[in-house]
Amino acid sequence: MPAMTMVQAINNALREEMRRDDRVVVLGEDVGRNGGVFRCTEGLIDEFPERVFDTPLSEGGIIGTSIGMALYGLRPVPEIQFLDFIYSGFDQIVSEAAKMRYRSGGQFTVPMTIRTPYGGGIRGGHYHSQSSEAYFCHTAGLKVVTPSTPLEAKGLLTSSIRDPDPVMFLEPKKLYRAFREEVPEGEVTVPIGQAAVRRAGKDVTLIAYGSMAQVCQEAATKAAEKGVEAEVIDVRTLVPLDEPALLASVKKTGRVVIVNEAPRTGSYGGEISAILAEKAIEYLRGPIVRVSGFDTPFPYTLEDVYMPNADRVLAAIDRVMAF
Amino acid sequence: MVDALRVIQDDGSTDPRLDPKLPEADAVRMYRGMMLQRILDNRMLALQRQGRIGFYGPSLGQEAAIIGAAMAMSPDDWIVPQYREPGAALVRGMPLTELLCQLMGNARDPVHGRQMPCHYVYRKGNYLSISSPVGTQLPHAVGIGWAMKLRGDRAAALVFFGDGATSTSDFHAAMNFAGVFRTPTVFLCNNNQWAISVPVARQTASATLAEKAQAYGFDGVRVDGMDALAVYGATREAAEAARSGRGPTLVEALTYRLGPHSSSDDPSRYRDEAEVARWRARDPIARFRRYLEQAGWWDEAREARLEQEIGDEITRAVQETERIPPPPVESLFTDVYADVPARLREQQDALTASLRR
To answer: Mean pLDDT across the stretch A199-209?
Structure first.
């Protein structure tokens, strides 16, 4: 079984789905000859010259025409080079893709998967680093998926492409080449809507997604050295959210730290916090504590200070344990 | 004004070089389509004033540019509407009662009262669902055409939009993609001179909208939008070019919005009655009637019969649909996704419980 980076696993998923289903089409900026700026689409144009398109530089055009293709019955997988550039296509996502099934009474649907790298960790400054997943979670009609391992990137992307509804597939670019994992060739699916327990523990629940899932595992290892057994839950699918998995863990531990790298105000961690407060308050032995980015634009030089790391998560664990 | 392609002259005679030579049945069907839209508009505006529907956007003055274009398309072609084209949906076979149910947002509305009136959809006729943001439908028509091409289907997508939409970034994106990928797309711009209160001179400094196509690498033609045969001919030619792999065309139909933007609009605030009167004198329906009369296909008796027939059809449809109750509360929660997610089901259950109390 080959050991793959997340980039290779995504490439593998795209290739296998394109082989399996001739309705799958890949389009975007530099996704053809160049194989994508992160190389996720490398070589696809050689195997599928009729279904891989380098497009004009227009996120609105890429997403808008992908919606048209999906309406006609194709399974477009547009790539937006960085989530930070998606806003010229935001209207198409929010007003069109997300509402098409609802506003047509199910007569028209948009089975489209928008792939896009997001999050910090590559010294990308304001415009190659942001985590704006909350905008999409706020819009009914979209599914929002983010993997944190190569194997699950393959499985979740495969499920997303096969999903009958529009999916925002957010790829934590910090993890693109962070580590390798055994990824089998052939069909791998991970169901949309299921969280994963990354590490079992009885004292405190750490809830995260994307690159922060890795940060939480690192923090949990360090906490164990101090005798605190942290359970790490990787949400994996922000919408639809696996509430039962979160509640089961929190009811067991009674303590929660939620970690996301997005700016604090209005971040998805706030929504998770509200759900736990509504549904598990009687199990909680302390406040729900959030570790997040700051309410500033994403910085260049001070990126490492901005992004939550294991030490900040550990400080939050200390706080809830001491409560 | 730059010359626009014209087929029917003021007296009803046609330019023999351009006349598409419609058989009588098709010509009468075209006239009926325009009359149905006109009479429907007047009746629906009246219903709106009586508080029986919430909102309405009439097509008054644009009948030729809508029906002429819609009739030029084949059943396998798609129509991507803006919001002023109920007549095109009816041409594609949408039952009048279904259209009225949409206007009323009742339990038999195919979209369960989720959208404001005039946001029609008719899948069976390849007539796409409508949204309110202007111009967002343009890239869809390019994507649909692109998909037709990829699948090897001999078909085209016709997209309706107005002069205001040519200012949007989606217009640029759509025209650009259509040109680059040579998609089978027919861009039908209903230049009705006004985007609510803003005149076309404030949308562009270009002499025409049609000439914009040149910058995207394909043809643009300007037609008299008050002339159904001119619109029909130009659209049919563009659709045929699209289907046979010759790429997109922009058709600018010069027309005029004789009525308000919508039932919420008062055009006397921003335009002169004299201008409206000048355009009213070029009424597309009156001109088409003169053409039918010249051909010997129409007379006073047929006119009276048609008006009666359409009026009765609308009356029956209103009577049938007005009694239908609003959609059930459950319909609020379906069709957000293919399946109702647990979190949404929980919200539905909570609402249902609170309504029961």
So the answer is: 98
pLDDT digits (tens, 9 = 90+) for A130-165: 999 999 999 999 999 999 999 999 999 999 999 999
DSSP β-ladder status, A230-234 and A196-199: antiparallel
Q: Taking CB atoms and an 8 Å cutoff, what residues of chain B touch A25?
A: 150
Binned at pLDDT 50, 70 and 90, residue B3 comes out as confident
Homologous superfamily of B24-326 in CATH?
A: Thiamin diphosphate (ThDP)-binding fold, Pyr/PP domains (3.40.50.970)
Token pair belonging to B274: 């004299």
Q: How confident is the model at residue B18 (pLDDT cuts 50, 70, 90)?
A: very high
Closest chain B residue to A165 measured between Cα atoms?
B337
Residue whose pair of structure tokens reads 């949990």 in the numeric block: A220
d(CA B30, CA B36): 10
Using an 8 Å CB-CB cutoff, list chain B residues near A142.
none
Report the DSSP beta bridge partners of residue B187.
B159, B250
Run of H or E including B161: strand B157-162
Task: List, as one string, the DSSP characters of A257-287.
Answer: EEEEEEESTT-HHHHHHHHHHHHHGGG-SS-
Q: What is the pLDDT of residues B148-190, one digit of tens each?
A: 999 999 999 999 999 999 999 999 999 999 999 999 999 999 9
pLDDT for residue B284 is more than 60: yes
| Cβ–Cβ below 8 Å for B170 and A91 | yes
Query: How far are the Cα atoms of B160, B231, B245 from residue B238, in angstroms, in the given order?
Result: 14, 10, 11
Q: Among candidates B336, B142, B91, B326, which has minimal Cα distance to A104? A: B336
Q: Measured between CA atoms, how close is B97 to chain A, in angstroms?
A: 17
Q: Hunting for tokens 């580590």 — which residue is that?
A: A179
Chain B residues in contact with A241 by the CB 8 A cut-off are 343
| SS3 assignment, position B77 | coil
Q: What is the ipTM of this complex?
A: 0.97
Interface test with B, best of A21, A51, A62, A65 (most B CBs within 10 A): A65
For B272-283, b/e burial (b = at least 16 CB within 10 A) is: eeeebeebeebb
Paired with A79 in beta bridges are A28, A115
How sure is the predictor about B1, in pLDDT bands with cuts at 50, 70 and 90? very low
- Domain residue ranges in chain B: 24-326, 332-357
Instruction: Give the pTM.
Output: 0.97
Positions of A marked active-site: 128
| pLDDT confidence bin for A1, thresholds 50/70/90 | confident
Closest approach of chain B CAs to the CA of A109, in angstroms?
Answer: 9
Structural domains for chain A: 3-182 (3.40.50.970), 196-322 (3.40.50.920)
- The number of helices, as runs of H, and strands, as runs of E, in chain B is 12, 7
For B210, phi then psi, to 5°, come to -60, -35
